[in-house]
Amino acid sequence: MTRWLVVLAFAAVPLAAQNPPSPSARAPQPAAADTAQRDTAAPRPTRGDSVRPVPPVTPGGAFLRSLIIPGWGQARLGRNVTGGIFLLWEGVCATMVWKTVWQLNYAQERGKFIASHTQEREDWIVLLVFNHLLAGAEAYVSANLYDFPAALKIQTLPGGRTGVGVSVPLK
Q1: Burial (CB count <10 Å: 0-12, 13-18, 19+), residue 37
Q2: Which ranges of the chain have pLDDT less than 50?
């Protein structure tokens, strides 16, 4: 038994010698005044690691960005397609509001269909506001779920069929 302990002890020695020396062993220790001065410096910003990445914008910041311009918060989070869809719908709604205002003015000059054009204009304004709120809420949720590990995969299944699935790794 002691022979194996001696063999294990000597076997571990070369491995420990191959490790590079720690930074504290290479550099001399700073004086006490330097240490105190270094402790008062501004703390380093925390960064995500391979386990939990940090989103490029806070959830509140993503919400406000997308509330101002729908799709901006999504684009900041790297969700360009989603941001583009919100921005595209914003353009459609804004164009339709402009069109219905023009049609309402024309209807008022003729004195016909005023109520229906007024209702149509109000409907498009509601959709415009709803798009802002939905884009903000989606950006907020996306920023909170930035580190969620699920991945959507589309692949060909046996028999030539196509399927969609979600892969969630479990520990």
Answers
A1: exposed
A2: 1-17, 34, 36, 39
pTM score, whole prediction: 0.58
* Distance (Å, whole) CA 16 – CA 7: 15
**CA pair distance 80, 132, nearest whole angstrom:** 16
Q: Are 145 and 62 in contact (CB under 8 A)?
A: no
Q: Which residue is associated with the tokens 């900041």?
A: 76
pLDDT in tens, 49-58: 556 677 888 9
Question: What crossing angle do the helices spanning 114-144 and 59-68 adopt, rounded to 10°?
Answer: 160
CA separation for the pair 64, 57 (Å, rounded): 11
SS3 at position 134: helix
Residue 157: exposure state from Cβ atoms within 10 A (0-12, 13-18, ≥19):
exposed
Say if residues 143 and 58 touch (Cβ distance below 8 Å).
yes
